[in-house]
Amino acid sequence: MIPEFGLFSLILALCFAFVLMTAGFYRPLAVLQRPATFGMCAFVCLSFILLVYGFMQDDFSVSYIAQNSNTQLPFMYKLCAVWGGHEGSLLLWVFILSLWTLGVTFLSRSLPANIMCSLYAVLGAIHAGFLLLLLHTSNPFLRLLPSMPTDGADLNPLLQDPGFVMHPPFLYLGYVGFAIPFAFAMAAMFNPKEVFSWAKWARPYALLAFSFLTIGISLGSWWAYYELGWGGWWFWDPVENASFMPWLVGAALVHALRVSSLKPLFNSWSLLLALCAFILSLVGTFLVRSGVLASVHAFASDPARGVFILYFLAVVMIGSFGLYGIHLQRDQGVSRLRFVSKESFILLGNVIFVTATATVLLGTLYPLIMEVLTHDKISVGPPYYAAVFVPIMLPLLLLMSFAPYTFWEQDSSKALFQRLSKPLLLCAGIIALVGYFTWLSLPAISLVGVVLGILIVISSLFKLRGSFSFNKLGMIFAHFGLGLAVLGISLTTALETEKELQLAVGSTATVANYDVQFAALSELNGPNYIGKQGHFVISKDKQPIANLYPEKRFFTARETMMTETAIDPGFLRDFYIALGERFIDGTWSVRIYIKPFVRWLWLGGILVALGAFIAAMTALQSNHHRRNVV
Amino acid sequence: MSLLHQKRIVLVLMLAVGLCIGVGLVLYALSQNINLFYTPTQLVTETITPNKTIRVGGMVQKGSLKHLDALAVEFTITDFKHETTIRYKGIMPDLFKEGQGVVALGKVGPNGDFVAEQILAKHDENYMPPEIANLKSEKT
Question: Which chain A residues are Cβ-neighbours of B20 within 8 angstroms?
């Protein structure tokens, strides 16, 4: 009965979503909106909990559970198997949308009634779209009766990993979170009187969504780094691009909202970005879920789902951009910008972000377009992004290092230069020092990256001087974090060492000043796998510095082989060993990497997220305060 | 024409020129960095620019995998009409199996063999590069 209750709650939630939508147009029903929102969210949460319960109980009569779980699967992975497949991850999508909706409902009690009415209607419509998708094409509670299997097919071994427990929820918190600024933007365009005040309401949610998305992307990159076993942390894979595009537009959005929430400036631009951020999230969902792309991320394809999401996407785009067109016609905000001012630099940064997004979008969709037009099957590889995306982002990094020093409205380049002179002097010193040691060993592009990274780090740290505010602290964290990430990326790509070797147990190889000894090999017995574990000792000048235990696991339920890499993490360098295959003579192929500064990448990501989070909390607080005063 | 108008026209012209250059560069980069996909049959029937990185895909022929010295391997892929020999040096992905689909990224060598830089094997039972899936459905 439990799965039927789950399905039934989804249907009830859909009914409540329709009530929300209707009330948006038929105002007498508006009193019902708040209770209907609670009802909708409660039933979505209930159905999610029931699916989790089904996984905990190993209810293999449910087709989805039978495909993604197994009695031998450890408890934690049963939990993450809930979103390991298509149906469950869509349910997670809707579940998180409900959480965000609840959050807004609680925190926006004192907003104007008109705005709230439209806001609920838009959120209801998004719920309805995804609930219909779930019920129509991907019901997670579908039964396998009467012939239910005795045991499940197990979770994809690749996903049986602690990183994967956290990665999808955070990614979705970010993705789906952009629905809230989107809903605020729509509400503002429905109610032209409030069209300038939406920015300060939407800003905390945009910042929160951006913060979660940053964590989600960082976790995903970290997971790929240690789980996929070839030491890469970003592949420009379409699925990664799908999460990266909302991030780029989200970054532009939080900056534009900073301006729009203070003054009626860039308002239409911020509206457009809020629409685009969510639409790109939907495009991402479509790309990932429909299986239209050949991708290293494994997702079963089902055209019916893809077509449904495509229709939904079309409705959202026509609706929101149509409304935006009407908004533009009545928009009369004419404003002047001085070139040297904080506003104009933020706008410039925004333009760069959007351009970069466009190039990523082009690279991601180009194979699809070409296949439709010419039937040629092509793929766009990382060299395209290295050639296009990186040069576009370089000026942005330069801009980032001095734009925080400008004043609002008007400033002069002479005064700006004076304010910048001290940090610049320090940067020059550090760059000279770094350059003295490493100048010739770095390729040009990495060198540019290192210089820009140092500039950003130092200039952000210098902003710590002067008056303190949490908002400023958030900015410093985020910019400092991005600087660290840029340093990490530049240094690790330039300085990493990779070696693939054939090693027998007991033998030693030399990799870049280090001796790597294959000390021992032992048997391994896990809950749902068997395998071998190697023991490697890394030493320098006969002094052992690290022990690594890479594994090779054979998952019995799916009969698949998996590599578990072993990593010795360090602030300045990672040792990374992955076992390859065993040859007839007992030797093993082994992949050894030394990756300097690779940790800085994720450390930077965490700091960016933290910065955005601090700014979000400050913005929420000040919104709350302002309302109490009024 | 006022000074303001002149300024605006210059600004718009600059934007337009910048946009054109940008789009041109992006399209050029794109045309330089796409990898066309070939089946073994297409490798035989079509002329392929040497030293251009392409992808080939097919099913790994049973019993064709040979380990040469020091991590070098050689195997044959087929689309059930023609075959291509692929040479690769390095560690094969976990999910590489004989009789299953594989995509190799690399260049055509001087003697007609395909020298791979990267081997992509299918990720799980449900997933297969779409090109290979097409092959399978064409065969049946």
Answer: none
Structure pTM? 0.91
Q: Decide which of 1.10.1740.10, 3.60.15.10, 3.40.50.11090, 2.40.50.140 is the CATH code for B37-139.
A: 2.40.50.140
Q: Is the pLDDT of residue B132 over 80?
A: no
Q: Which residue of A63, A581, A583, A587 is the best one to mutate when testing the B interface, meaning the one whose CB has the most B CBs within 10 A?
A: A581
Return the HEC string of A217-231: HHHHHHHHHHHCCCC
Task: Say if B120 is an interface residue toward chain A (CB within 8 Å).
Answer: yes
Chain B hits for A301, Cβ within 8 Å: 130
Q: Is A153 exposed, middle or buried (0-12, 13-18, 19+ CB in 10 A)?
A: middle
Q: How far apart are CA A460 and CA A483, in angstroms?
A: 9
ipTM of the complex, rounded to two decimals: 0.78
Q: Tokens 């700014």 label which residue? A: A615
| Closest Cα in chain A to B123 | A298
What SS3 state is found at A526? Answer: coil
> Domain residue spans in chain B?
1-34, 37-139
- 């706008």: which residue's tokens? A347
pLDDT at A195 over 70: yes
φ/ψ of B60, rounded to 5, equals -75, 125
Classify each residue of B10-41 as buried b or exposed e, where b means 16 or more C-beta atoms within 10 Å of its C-beta.
eeeeeeeeeeeeeeeebeebbeebbbbbbbbb
Question: Is the peptide bond between A550 and the residue preceding it cis, with omega within 30 degrees of 0?
Answer: no
Q: How confident is the model at residue B91 (pLDDT cuts 50, 70, 90)?
A: confident
Q: Is A291 left (phi over 0), alpha (psi -120 to 50) or beta?
A: left
DSSP letters of A21-69? HHHHHSGGGGGGHHHHHHHHHHHHHHHHHHHHHHHHTT-TTBHHHHHH-
Evaluate whether A582 touches A588 at the Cβ level (below 8 Å): yes
CA dist., res. A92 & res. A83, Å (int): 7
Is the backbone of residue A229 left (phi > 0), alpha (psi -120 to 50) or beta? left
Buried-exposed string A313-349: b where 16+ CB fall within 10 A, e elsewhere = beebeeebeebbeebeeeeeeeeeeeebbbbbbbbeb
pLDDT digits (tens, 9 = 90+) for A73-109: 888 888 888 988 889 999 999 999 999 999 999 998 8
Other CB atoms closer than 10 Å to residue A273's CB: what's the count? 28
CA distance A320 to A190: 10
Q: Is A329 helix (H, G, I), strand (E, B) or coil?
A: helix
Enumerate residues 6+ apart whose C-beta is below 8 A from A129: A312, A315, A316
CB A521 within 8 A of CB A534: yes
Residue A424's Cβ-count burial label (10 Å; 0-12, 13-18, 19+) is middle
Distance CA A483, CA A600 (A): 9
Which residues of chain B lie closer than 8 angstroms to A298, CB-CB? 122-124, 126-127
| Nearest chain B alpha carbon to A583 | B67
The tens digit of pLDDT for each residue in A418-463 reads 888 888 888 888 888 887 776 667 788 888 899 999 999 999 998 8
Residue B131 contacts A where some CB pair is shorter than 8 Å: yes
Question: What residue of B is the nearest CA neighbor of A591?
Answer: B91
Pairs across A and B, CB distance < 8 A: 92
Q: What is the mean pLDDT of chain A?
A: 88
**Contact between chains at A296 and B90 (C-beta distance less than 8 A):** no
Instruction: Please give, rounded to a whole number of angstroms, the shortest distance from the CA of A395 to a CA of chain B.
Output: 14
Please give the Cα distance from A625 to A552 (Å, whole number). Answer: 56
CA distance A613 to chain B (A): 34
Structure tokens at A7: 């399905």
